[in-house]
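RECORD TYPE: inverse folding
INPUT: structure tokens
STRUCTURE:
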């Protein structure tokens, strides 16, 4: 259980996250040096993942955050991205399943993350379905606009794939077609 002082330091660290990393890390080290704090562990995981690209330490901090409080929802929004980056798709799916089972999580965000996972696995039609679900359950116009742009991107990928398949089919047809020559 975190103390009031640790919670204040965590909020200060969170506030300074992307623009003053030195101050953010200093406050997080103080919080993490004391009691277990899911939020501080999650934020430290984000720093290792997003800023330092140290995936091993990031994974340890995200995992620690889930062990401290498996209902700390922010971890379910960031940890799957790390797992996708390191191509641990099975674990990413598991983390998302647990996130979906929690009442307090933002389902629109989770559907978006699942769509990214499916897109990474080159399952574009399923990714498109997840993006549509995300848009459907979203309560935020900014998120809906963002999802519209993601849908456009996935649709463009699907068009490229269709064009490539048509080219491959034409090559096969041409390779199998025998040309009649005057010498035959």
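DESIGNED SEQUENCE:
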């Amino acid at each position: 259980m975190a103390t009031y002082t640790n919670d204040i330091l965590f909020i200060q660290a969170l506030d300074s996250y992307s623009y003053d990393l030195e101050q953010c890390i200093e406050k997080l080290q103080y919080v993490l040096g004391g009691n277990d704090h899911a939020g501080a562990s999650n934020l430290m995981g984000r720093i290792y993942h997003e800023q330092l690209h140290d995936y091993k330490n990031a994974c340890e901090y995200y995992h620690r955050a889930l062990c401290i409080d498996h209902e700390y929802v922010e971890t379910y929004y960031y940890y799957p991205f790390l797992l996708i980056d390191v191509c641990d798709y099975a674990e990413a799916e598991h983390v998302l399943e647990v996130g979906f089972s929690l009442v307090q999580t933002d389902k629109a965000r989770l559907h978006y993350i699942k769509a990214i996972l499916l897109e990474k696995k080159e399952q574009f039609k399923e990714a498109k379905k997840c993006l549509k679900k995300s848009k459907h359950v979203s309560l935020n116009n900014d998120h809906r606009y963002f999802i519209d742009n993601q849908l456009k991107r996935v649709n463009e990928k699907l068009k490229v794939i269709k064009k490539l398949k048509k080219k491959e089919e034409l090559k096969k047809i041409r390779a199998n077609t025998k040309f009649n020559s005057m010498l035959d």
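NOTES: Residues 37 and 135 are 32 Å apart (CA to CA).
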